[in-house]
Amino acid sequence: MTNIFGWLVALQATIHGAIAEHIQAFAGSGDWLTLLAVLPMGMLFGAAHGLTPGHNKMVLASYVAGDRVPALRASLIAIVLTAVHVGSAVVIAMGASFLVSRTITNAGQAPLLEMASRILLVMIGLWLVLRSVLGRPHAHGEGLGFAVIAGLIPCPLTLFVMVLAMSQGVPEAGLVFAIAMLAGVGLVLTTVALVASFGGQALARSLGRHGTSAAHAARGLEVMAGVALIAMAGHQLIR
Fold first, then answer.
1. Cα(90)–Cα(155) distance, rounded to whole angstroms?
2. Which residues of the chain have pLDDT under 50?
3. Helix axis angle, 111-134 relative to 57-66, nearest 10°?
């Protein structure tokens, strides 16, 4: 575990260094072709960053699997989560500098938004458990609401890029990298959502083959998802 953690830290440092170098080069030359040429690298960095701890991958997987979300809707939830995750960082950097200076730590965290997101995730977990116990039907658009709430925590790498680009006087470079990273992070989260979707449906079918009714299997998975959300978000709040 120590070696893996060390590798992840080194990877983050490499990503930060490479992006900083390209933004500073663009600030000096103003050459858009040079900036656009590194878009694939930005996507790669976004995907690599998406694989590091965070980004609510476990929260997303628990919700999608427990709620047996179909693959297409699971992909949409992942895309919305990614858009809010990256977009909130852009909005904070460009329109709420006071929030950045007062609440963003060296790790690129936003404690107030993180607390709000996790409190709401605990409430979603409680609702999943309650809904299962009461046998209530699924609400339309519930998954998208979950995606927005889970994505409220801004992407630390996007915050770093945007603040750096603005300090260099080239916010447009930050936006270009943010778009590229959105694609990379979105690819990772969509993959997680699809695996969880197929896994949740496979587990429900397996329970059915072993004598558990479809209704009972569904309710059991919902309870498991709700408890998982409460545990993960609650642990982060307490910590």
1. 9
2. 101, 103-107
3. 10
Q: Which of 12, 2, 51, 36 is nearest to 180 (CA)?
A: 36
Number of residues written out for the chain: 239
What helix, strand, coil percent values describe the chain, rounded to 5?
85, 0, 15
The whole-model pTM stands at: 0.82
Query: Angle at CA 181, nearest 5°, toward 9 and 171?
Result: 105
- Cα 79 to Cα 61, 82, 100, 212, 224: the distances in Å are 13, 5, 25, 33, 24
Residue in 162, 4, 15, 167 with CA at minimum distance from that of residue 94: 162
Q: How many helices (H) and strands (E) does the chain have?
A: 11, 0
C-alpha distances in Å from residue 107, one per residue of 55, 84, 117, 157, 197: 14, 19, 18, 9, 31
- Burial of 206 by CB count in 10 Å (0-12 exposed, 13-18 middle, 19+ buried)? exposed
Which residue in the block uniquely carries the two structure tokens 């694939």? 40
Q: What is the pLDDT of residues 82-109, one digit of tens each?
A: 999 999 889 888 876 555 545 444 445 6
Tell me if residue 82 falls in helix, strand or coil. Answer: helix
**Residue 238, Cα to own-chain centre: how many angstroms?**
20
How far apart, in whole angstroms, are the C-alpha atoms of residue 63 and residue 146? 9
User: How large is the C-alpha radius of gyration of the chain?
Assistant: 19
Secondary structure (DSSP) of 24-38? HHHHHH--HHHHHHT
